[in-house]
């Protein structure tokens, strides 16, 4: 730079060292450039300090070299790990690192890295926890065997299925997640299934002819629309089930959440084709243990088809939940056949259906033949005393049922008397719910007498049964004593088991 340029670039100084402000436009622009460069350097320093709070700003002076700083050069390991983080999308290096370097890498690795890169490589739960917390702030990891990676894949697959529109949504995104995380998926909890969108093609004629409002309304009212429907009614699980080798729980609701003003009963219909697809999927899935199909308007025709084509003689199924549906007596006869040696069912939930006396009798017959059933829920049905007595008689032959729920079934004295008779002889029941049935005060005394020699029943719900406060108090005291005896028995069994398995190798 020449002297003349230097004089124009910097403000002049007087003999007493006072700075004379620039006067020319060249001097003003030169000073402005210097100030902008200085401000940029200061802002960069502040920004770096904010991104790295553990490092405090160490600049002390403004030097001619704007990159000058007192900060110590970072270690080569940190520089190398930062380089690996930046290139992890295209050139991932993970298995070759030491454990301490892996942990440091995962702390800096962003969650935006493609899943096809991270899913096969990273098993560390810390990284997957970070991914889950970023997308779902509230996570109950206990329901997923404390595995964040399982939580991540199951939630993503569930959300894709719940927002899937048949014949419109592409399956590509779903199968990308399935191919990468199929081994981690053990449960699918589908809270809604969207119906297909019907496309209406109105065949209009005389398009060039002008119609006024009245003529156009008359034409539209009189013309029928041609409706094209997709091949399937809801999401087809057939291909998906093939890629899930570890699926054990399947929860389904054939309905729409939050439909608002667009409500239509067709949104909550479990069609015949849906039933055929589901039966085929259950038959193919040999690892399935729990099937929940609730709030889906399942009627007798659908349940019979589902049992015949999918549930009968299933090798691993142990729990069925059909609560809040429309199953009546004909459907119960099919369920009874399932209990009669054609399944390994342990838990059966038929709460809030349309089961009457004949249906309860069919279920009772199935109970007498079953050697595995442990839980039966018939709450909120219409079995009446005829069905209630049949269930009680079945308890004399069945020795595996532990929990029975007959609440809100319009039961009265005949059922109460029969139940009081079998309490002395049944040694397997531990919990009974008879709430919201008008049993009466005499039944309360009969139940009190029937429990005198019963030491296995631990819980007996008699709320809103009109059995009388005195009888309920005595029954509760008896149950309290049974629970205490059961606790002491379990402690004794545990101690005896520990004594048998204890070794004394440490003494030798």
From TrEMBL:
Its main location: cytoplasm. Keywords: Cytoplasm, Cytoskeleton. It is found in: Cytoplasm, Cytoskeleton. InterPro entries: DRC5 (IPR052410), Leu-rich_rpt (IPR001611), LRR_dom_sf (IPR032675). Residues 1-29 are annotated as: Disordered. Signal peptide: none annotated. One of its GO terms (cellular component) is cytoskeleton. Residues 15-27 have a biased composition (Polar residues). PANTHER family: DYNEIN REGULATORY COMPLEX SUBUNIT 5, YNEIN REGULATORY COMPLEX SUBUNIT 5. This is T-complex-associated testis-expressed protein 1. It comes from Rotaria socialis. The lineage of its organism: Eukaryota, Metazoa, Spiralia, Gnathifera, Rotifera.
């Amino acid at each position: 730079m020449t002297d003349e340029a230097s004089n124009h670039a910097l403000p002049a100084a007087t003999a007493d060292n006072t700075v004379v402000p620039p006067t020319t436009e060249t001097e003003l622009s030169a000073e402005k450039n210097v100030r902008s460069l200085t401000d940029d350097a200061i802002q960069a320093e502040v920004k770096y300090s904010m991104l790295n709070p553990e490092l405090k700003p160490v600049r002390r002076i403004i030097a001619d070299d704007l990159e000058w700083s007192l900060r110590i050069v970072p270690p080569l390991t940190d520089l190398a790990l930062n380089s690996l983080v930046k290139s992890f999308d295209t050139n991932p290096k993970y298995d070759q690192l030491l454990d301490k370097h892996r942990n440091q890498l995962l702390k800096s690795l962003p969650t935006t890295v493609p899943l096809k890169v991270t899913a096969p490589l990273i098993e560390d739960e810390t990284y997957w926890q970070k991914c889950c917390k970023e997308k779902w702030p509230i996570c109950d990891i206990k329901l997923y065997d404390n595995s964040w990676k399982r939580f991540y894949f199951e939630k993503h697959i569930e959300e894709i299925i719940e927002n899937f529109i048949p014949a419109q949504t592409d399956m590509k995104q779903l199968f990308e997640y399935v191919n990468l995380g199929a081994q981690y998926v053990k449960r699918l909890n589908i809270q809604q299934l969207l119906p297909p969108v019907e496309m209406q093609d109105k065949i209009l004629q005389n398009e060039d002819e002008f119609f006024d409002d009245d003529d156009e309304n008359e034409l539209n009212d009189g013309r029928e629309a041609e409706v094209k429907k997709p091949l399937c009614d809801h999401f087809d699980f057939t291909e998906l089930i093939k890629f899930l080798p570890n699926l054990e729980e399947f929860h389904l609701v054939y309905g729409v959440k939050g439909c608002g003003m667009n409500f239509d009963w067709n949104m909550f219909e479990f069609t015949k084709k849906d039933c055929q697809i589901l039966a085929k999927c259950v038959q193919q899935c040999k690892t399935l243990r729990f099937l929940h199909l609730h709030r889906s308007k399942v009627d007798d025709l659908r349940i019979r088809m589902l049992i015949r084509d999918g549930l009968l003689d299933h090798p691993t199924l142990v729990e069925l939940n059909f609560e809040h549906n429309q199953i009546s007596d004909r459907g119960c006869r099919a369920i009874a056949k399932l209990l009669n040696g054609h399944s390994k069912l342990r838990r059966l939930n038929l709460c809030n259906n349309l089961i009457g006396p004949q249906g309860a009798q069919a279920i009772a017959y199935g109970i007498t033949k079953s050697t595995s059933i442990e839980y039966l829920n018939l709450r909120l049905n219409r079995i009446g005393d005829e069905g209630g007595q049949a269930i009680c008689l079945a308890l004399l032959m069945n020795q595996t049922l532990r929990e029975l729920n007959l609440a809100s079934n319009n039961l009265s004295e005949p059922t109460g008397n029969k139940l009081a008779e079998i309490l002395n002889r049944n040694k397997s029941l531990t919990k009974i719910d008879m709430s919201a049935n008008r049993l009466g005060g005499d039944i309360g005394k009969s139940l009190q007498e029937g429990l005198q020699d019963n030491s296995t029943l631990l819980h007996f719900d008699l709320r809103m049964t009109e059995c009388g406060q005195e009888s309920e108090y005595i029954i509760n005291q008896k149950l309290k004593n049974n629970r205490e005896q059961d606790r002491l028995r379990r402690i004794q069994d545990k101690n005896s088991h520990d004594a048998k398995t204890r070794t004394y190798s440490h003494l030798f």
